[in-house]
Amino acid sequence: MRTYGFGALQLLWIGLLLAVCTWSNGFRFTWYLPDFAIAHVQLMAIVQAMCVAALTIFLPVVVVIAQRLLLVISDRRALSQ
After folding, report:
1. What pLDDT is recorded for position 29?
2. Which of 14, 29, 39, 65 is the most buried (most CB within 10 A)?
3. 46-60 pLDDT, tens per residue?
């Protein structure tokens, strides 16, 4: 649950960055050229949000599986001694 909370907090901060970039450039690009620095930050923030969301979903599953495997190994070593 801490991982999900931390992921949600990160997505909140990224969302605030996206809101500032969207407010600066507008919701869509029209006939004029937007500020490319802000558009680049906006695009990278969207990519970062997708990566954080994907890791937030799958990382706890990997940690639970690794924890179970380590507990099994620990129990087998305790029984063999």
Report:
1. 66
2. 14
3. 999 999 999 888 888
Distance CA 74, CA 34 (A): 58
Q: What are phi and psi of 26, to 5 degrees?
A: 100, 170
**How many structural domains comprise the chain?**
1
Residue 4 Cα distances to 1, 20, 33, 51, angstroms: 5, 24, 38, 14
12 is written with which tokens?
């909140």
User: Helix, strand, or coil here: 81?
Assistant: coil
Give residue 65's domain range: 2-80
pLDDT at 68 over 90: yes
